[in-house]
2-phospho-L-lactate transferase
Amino acid sequence: MRITVLAGGVGGARFVRGLREEVRRRTEAGGPGTTPDEIDVIVNTGDDLWLAGVRLMPDFDSLLYALAGVNDTERGWGRAGETERVAAELREWGVGWPWFTLGDLDLGTHLARTSWLRDGLTPTEVGDRLQQRWELGVHLRPATDTEVDTHVLVRDPEASEDPDATRELHFQEWWTRYRATLPAIAFRQRNIDRARPAPGVAEAIEGADVVLLAPSNPVVSIGTILAIPGIREALAATGAPVVGVSPIIGGKVVRGMADACLTAIGVETDAAAVARHYGSRTVGGILDGWLVDEADASAEAVLEASGIPTRAVPLWMHDLDRSAALAADAIDLAATLR
Ligand code: GDP
Ligand code: CA
């Protein structure tokens, strides 16, 4: 079986680790000679940026580090055992952003990536080199090789006399410096009209047996992947059932500030509202099925009526076992569809 996942950083990484574990267990239970399922992960590139002369791909690296087992599980991002000596020097030089710390080990990744980009490799080729270092058990693919860095149009009355003053800043500045507190008016992915899915991405969707949407940010993670011309077409064309997992439980985001993003695009922070935003594939949307938490069981009937078969299961990925069980629920729901 070929499983293709659309994913952002931290929510994506937790889900994909669980999926990899579930696939391993199924392969072991199948006995000797059982071929493991193939997992392709299509990774959001909207958070990417140039900073201090190097190219950062935060969601790609979150997945890379988590799947390699070298991530900082306490902090929830970056490398384990990280130091920040270079960041302290950069601050002295006034280079980079003082509120955006680049760890030393993490900088090693960015330097390697930037060096290969300078040699003429594409982001996909760079991503392939980075993941050769570890036995990940899944294949990570940047959604596009075009730079589509997300910018946020915000209302910022303090920046001028005009109470309606707006300005545009990089997503990472809005998210990390302002903790998503400046009211967002719109998210704009640079170059998105000219972007194409990276090589193999549309094929991974169209050739899959199951397509899963990780419980990632619906606006700036999944939303950016969907905005790349060609991705929605691939989702429409695939013979595979497409099943999504809600990042919202009981009207709240589980971690992070995705509610600020949803509010900005006029979608309620609610599991059923996110499913309706994605829409049923029967009417031009992208979903064949949707998983909500048991706390949102009332969404089942509502969404079935909108043509989105929905199951309520535990959605909190507290540990690897819970993440694996969630992946199993997603695969099992997919098996009943289409
Ligand atoms: P980011 O790129 O690091 O922001 O991560 P993602 O876009 O992949 O995921 C962010 C989303 O993951 C947030 O909206 C969270 O609500 C969601 N999330 C995080 N942990 C969990 C969890 O344990 N269960 C579920 N269902 N969602 C989660
Ligand atoms: Ca992200």
Q: What stands out?
A: Residues 10-29 form the longest helix (20 residues). The domain at 3-49+138-144+193-337 is CATH 3.40.50.10680 (Rossmann fold). The pocket of guanosine-5'-diphosphate (ligand 1) is lined by residues 7-12, 14, 59, 62, 214-217, 221, 245-247, 249, 253-256, 258, 315-317 (CB under 6 Å).
